[in-house]
Design goal:
This protein has 97 residues and is mostly helical. The chain is 80% helix and 0% strand. The model has no long low-confidence stretch (mean pLDDT 93).
């Protein structure tokens, strides 16, 4: 039962990782005018991704210094997710034995 819980957490962290990567790539595409934000679908997709990721970025943005337009908070969140996944796999391995 506990291993299934760890598997679900791993899955949710994987989905969150992909959401962060997609949001970062789309923000770059918007910054370089590759995609148009006047399109309703693109605007709603960007808005949804921002609403999902902003609560994760906000505490990290308060801690990180200003780097002049470069946002390192997605990288920090991805590193934290990676650390959490390593810790979960270690705990799951201990529970399995």
């Amino acid at each position: 039962m506990l291993l299934a819980f760890f598997d679900i957490l791993q899955l949710l962290l994987t989905v969150l990782t992909w959401i962060i990567i997609i949001q970062a790539i789309l923000s770059w595409l918007v910054a370089f005018n590759v995609i148009n934000t006047y399109n309703d679908f693109v605007r709603s997709l960007l808005n949804a991704l921002d609403r999902i990721t902003e609560p994760l970025y906000r505490p990290i943005r308060r801690i990180l210094p200003d780097f002049g337009g470069i946002d390192f908070s997605p990288l920090v969140v991805l590193l934290l997710i990676y650390v959490i996944r390593i810790l979960l796999s270690g705990v799951a391995a201990d529970v399995a034995y």
